[in-house]
Amino acid sequence: MTQLEMAREGIISDQIRVAAAAEGMDPEVLRRRIVDGTAIVCHNIKRQGGKPLAVGQGLRTKVNANIGTSKDDVSIDKELEKARVAVAACADALMDLSTGGPVDEIRAAIIRETDACIGSVPLYQAAVDTVLRQKKAIVDMTVEDIFAGVVKHLEDGVDFITVHCGVTRSTVERMNREGRIMEVVSRGGSFTVEWMAHNEAENPLYEHFDRLLEIVRPYDAVLSLGDGFRPGCLEDATDRAQIHELILLGELTQRAREAGIQVMVEGPGHVPIDQIETNIKLQKQLCHGAPFYVLGPLVTDIAPGYDHITCAIGGALAGAAGADFLCYVTPSEHLRLPTVEDVHEGVMAARIAAHAADIAKGVPGAREKDAAMARCRKALDWEGQFKLAIDPHKARSMRAESGVDEEHGACTMCGEFCAYKVMNERRDKQRSAAG
Ligand code: SF4
Q1: What proportion of the chain, given as a percentage, has pLDDT over 90?
Q2: Please, what are the domains in the chain?
Q3: Residue 102 main-chain phi, psi, to 5 deg
Q4: Which of 375, 376, 378, 411 to mutate to test the pocket of ligand 1 (most atoms within 8 A of CB)?
C-alpha cells in the first residue's frame, strides 16, 4: 500500500510519525490531512536515510533550493558544496536540476550527501541522455526515453518528481491564440512544447498519465505537477494558458489521488502583487486543496541581481495566502548559474518569506519566536538574539565587525543614545525607587 492508501485505512506509518514529530503535530491530524489531500509526506521508500518531509495545510511553510550543473558549468564538488550550504541554511528540500556533465553521478552524490528531501525533473534526464549520449536532438526523445528517465530518478531515491503533465496541445493552442511576451519559460515545459510540435503528438506524460502513476506507485514518491506555462513576466501572469494548465492539473490531481499517489501542484512564476492571492485561491480551489509549491512569485521583472528579494516578497504574500512550499530564487536568477554564496542568500531570503507567512497563517510556534527576539533585543541580550536569528552567523559577525563587544552594550547605530538602554535605565530607576 502507498502512504495515501495506508492513511485511508487509518494506518499511521513511520513516515507520518517522523514527519509529524518534526512539525510538533499530532500524527493523527497529519494522517487525516493526507487522506483529504491537503497535506503530503515526501519520501521515496527506496531512499536510504532520507527524512520524510510533510508539506501542506497547517504545517510550517517549506523551502526548496534548486541546485545542479549546466552544460557551461559542470563541477560535482561545487554542487555538493551548494547542497551542504543549502542544508546548513535550513532548506527543507533540494531539487537537483543538473543538465551538464555526468548527471547520474551528480544526482547520486547529492542524494548521498544529505538526508533532506530531494526532488528532480526526470524529463531533463531524458533530454540529456538523448542529446549528450545518443547525439540526437531533444525532439528525438522517444516516449520510452521519457519514462526511462522517470524510472531512473525514482530508482535513485528521489522523493518527489516534477512532471509537466499539463503542457498539452490544448494549453499550447491557448498560448498561441492569446499571445505571450515570454511564451514558455519553464525548461521542462519548453522541451515538451518543442517535442509535441515536432512529433505532432500529445505530451506523453499527459496522454499516458496512468502509466506514470503505475511507475511511481512502487516508490511511493510524490508527483509534483509542474507548471510548464508559469508566467515568465508580469504581462503574462494569470492568462488563459496558465489557468487552463491549472484546470488540467486539478483533474490530474484527482486521478492521481484515486490511484493512491500523493500530489502537490506547482505554481507561478512572475506575478504582480495584486494577483498573488487570487492565484493561490484559484489553485486551492481547482486542485482540491492540494499543497501548492510556488517558484517565487517574483513581483517585478526589473531587478536582476536582486531576484531573491523580488521572490521573497512574493513568497511571503503567497505563503500568507496559503502556499505551502516556496522554491527559492537566488540573486543570480536570470543572469547565471548560482554560486555557493548565492545559494545561501537565496535560502535565507526564502526562509524569511516562509516564516513571515507562517506568522500570518498562525503556524504554532512561529509568532513566539518573534516575541522571544523582541525580549532579547529589549534586554540587549546579544547571545539570545544570535540564537534566535534566522542567520545567526551573519548577525554575530556583523556585530563583531562593528568593533563593539560589550555583552549587554548598545550597538554603533545610536551608541549612548540607545533607546533600549534609555528605557531599561528608566525602568531600573523606577524599580529601585519603588523599593
Ligand atoms: S543602539 Fe539603537 S539600533 Fe543599536 S540596539 Fe540600541 S536602539 Fe537598537
Answers
A1: 95
A2: 3-361 (3.20.20.540), 366-434 (no CATH)
A3: -80, 80
A4: 411
